[in-house]
Batch of 2 targets.
Target 1
Amino acid sequence: MKIILKFGGTSISSASNIRQVANLIKTLSKEHHVIPVFSALSGVTDDLIKITDHIQKRNRDAAKALAKKIIKVHMDLANQCAKNTKIRKELETKMKADLDELEGLLDGMLLLGEVTPRSSDYMVSFGERLSINLVAFTLNDIGIRAVPLTGKDIGIITDSNFGSARPLMDTTRLHVSHTIESLSQKKIMPVIGGFAAADQNGNITTLGRGGSDYTATIVASSIKADEVWLMSDVDGLMTTDPKIVKNAKLIKEVSYIEAMEMALFGAKNIHPKALEPLVAKKIPLRIRNTFNIKNPGTLVTTNPLPETQKTVKCVSAIRHTALIDVRGGSMVGAPGTAATIFSILAKAGVNIMMISQSPSESSISIIVKKNDLDKAVNSLEMNLLGKIIKKVDVTLDVSIIALIGSGMRGITGVASKVFTAVAKRKVNVIMIAQGSSELNLAFVVKDSDCNAAVQALHDEFELAKN
Ligand code: ASP
Ligand code: MG
């Protein structure tokens, strides 16, 4: 099989983990054609983003100190990963060259005191650029010919939407398949850096947070891989958060659509666009644990096996959100009210997580992240209070509970089962929304009721039973 193996940052957080991953790749490549893709080391992307914040605020010392930390972490690992002296020297030389470029970029940005979307992407792309050096040379050290290549190097071309660029798939497919094919003829394994790519002018772009997943699926689609494995430190998708429900179980199979829903609800942070390249080509995805490879993980396919189908497959919760209730008599029968409200929130940079409107049209309820609440309320009050809106009410500390499963579609009685189970635990439901796809049913409760509601539903739908 041709397998794209994508490893998250936690899989390569120490020299011994990096060696373990290299050995796993070596073992798998005896049987398969393996092409690995890597994230940055854990925390490095966050630190690079912080550096850009410091530059913007002209905190020269703080920016320099963080860069120093990143340099130390990578140089220390470079020193520990390879046993062979010659290979270790080569790794250190490559790492130093990349780190010099990082420092040069930092000095340039500090001098200008300016962070543009373009320079920011260039800066944050260094996480993956550095991590692949460690893996590629560790592979060399255990006898596998491998070269570190960034997304730009292997030929992923995107639009110039810095920060969340989209791949131009036709060009990308040509370039990526050519690069990988010619390396494979020379028996060289590309060790690909995720997350970053380049636009048509050669500027470095990034695919959005968590974008290494997306890189893996873009590459898979480009070379028609047989499978993609997302390797991290969890066994796969779970029926719910094991921190809330002790007997939460691993989900064996889900469809792409279910997985996308689950990803949006943060069950496991899969990049939301990452499944797109796979769907058209029907390339299966597995979510697996680097440190528990015996476990087959969760399989994501077009058509999960009938015996794995259930009405509800997973209950997720998003805590610490806030509810805004917007009311006003003049909202009734006035076309454009919702559009006005939502565009004001959009202008304020507020992301809306859930909406519901009563058919009387006199109120609209909106759920936002707690961090966005002040921005949201201020902008609504400044722009609309006393005009189309009479009142803005806020309920703090609420959670969204979502049930996900394509088996809910067209089945009667799911909602009644849900709300009866919740009512039995004396949990009050504040707001409800179900998309017409019937793939998920979501409702809102007080944060303090969140665990009880999740437990009740996990029991009611017997999710712990396999
Ligand atoms: N390093 C990037 C991030 O932390 C991409 C990834 O990890 O997938 O968002
Ligand atoms: Mg990451």
Target 2
Amino acid sequence: MPTKYIIVTGGVLSGLGKGIAAASIGHLLSSRLKIVPIKCDGYLNVDPGTMNPYEHGEVFVLDDGGEVDMDFGHYERFLGVSGKTKWNLTMGKVFDMVRQKERRGDYLGKTVQYIPHVTDIIKNHIFEVAKEEAADLIVVEIGGTVGDIENELFLDAVRQMKEDVGRENIVYVHLTYVPIPHGVHEQKSKPTQQSVNLLKQRGIFPDIIIGRCAQLLTREIKAKISNFCDVDPEAVITGLDVEDIYEIPLIFEQEGIAGILHKKLNIYSPPDMTRWKKWIDNLRNPTGEITVAMCGKYTKLEDSYASIIESFHHCSAHFGYKIDLKWVETTDLKNASCLDGVHGIVVPGGFGHRGTEGKIEVIREARERNIPFLGLCLGLQLAVIEFARNVCGLNGANSTEMDASTPHPVIDILPEQKTITEKGGTMRLGAYPAVLRPGSLVHSLYGTSEVSERHRHRYEVNPAYHQVIQEKGMVFSGCSRDGRLVEFIELPGHKFFAATQAHPELKSRMEVPSPMFYGFVKACIG
Ligand code: GLN
């Protein structure tokens, strides 16, 4: 079977959920097909690693160490794939490639033009990924909205693709907005008509239109959109406003999108949504509730903790429990009374010293009051600092990130980190293996002797302090193969006190919640 392509574009407004729509379509087809998502972003940054989380939300890290758009999180979670940096194509990357080719003399003296030279780069990149991955289906999402200057070249490239791959191997899906204006009480199709016209002016004739709407689209509006936009009436699909994005695949299934794609692309992959329905049902009808304190710095900006929120959501679906996240700002933490009544405490990742002393206090409370505690990256480092200060008696222990002249640098940059200059400076990025200690809590949670989780940090537990910390009872339950890097810690005899230098939240899935979160939530439920 030749590789099939689904191209997803958006119109009318940004923020309609193109990424979720593309990922949901993929999800419905993922039972038997090897699907690879490709995201095209119009901005000129080469990757989002350098972009401010305030502006861009969480930086999502892949196994290969690539720092990509948080949309990749949705793709990984909905498609069950492990993304690669190459699957994120930004205009910055495209121009980089064109320039390199030009300087190498590859264009043989020709005038280098947007069409065909830049669009060829885009198409070839997509075809290369298809080939390398031996993909059955490539889902290409074009960022932005039709009419934006930034995505014109991507749109032209995907327009041309139908000639390259054959009309029977490509489907164009366009996501638009169907408003129900206040006082009008009627679904309106005009924005969709106009948006589709913009697309047609660019030579793209959509096969499927998804209309984002507060209600299911009526038969009348579907007929009207079908008539004005030249698509089959059954190919007009509702993109319903939902409480929970995990409901979107179910909506699309009800609306018959898998059948339409089968008809157009001849790909038979009937979705089995039984388990998915059960999870959604659990989320809608929880049998209990817990409150978890999230002690962070960007607590006002929930997008910067997107994957952690997702991980709890997966646990919610599995346990049938509602998990309330209580955002605790540790910068101005006056007393620990904000922890009263919480069932568990999370200290997530972060950079810089602001709020760290508050977090260390929170961790002390968790340890002394036997409240379940989960530390993620910075959370592990602060748990080690707290233990060093209050149990090992190492006064003033700290990380050199917070205090360069601490008498006890229990967290420090290791010499080997200083030589990493490739990506993100001295950052340890991407998947690294950890060997788990038999009999430990972490070992029982993962059920394997070695695990691989993703990293994004500079500092490590300082090997000079390994011995004294362990002698006082903190267990290093997972370490790098050479034993030099501490990857997991835990305190025996506590309800649940565990932390990792990695970011297990990046690999949590609805199908298999992250073992660290699963164990933590289980302890919180008690
Ligand atoms: N700031 C810490 C470091 O660089 C932790 C980073 C993180 O939590 N992602 O090591």
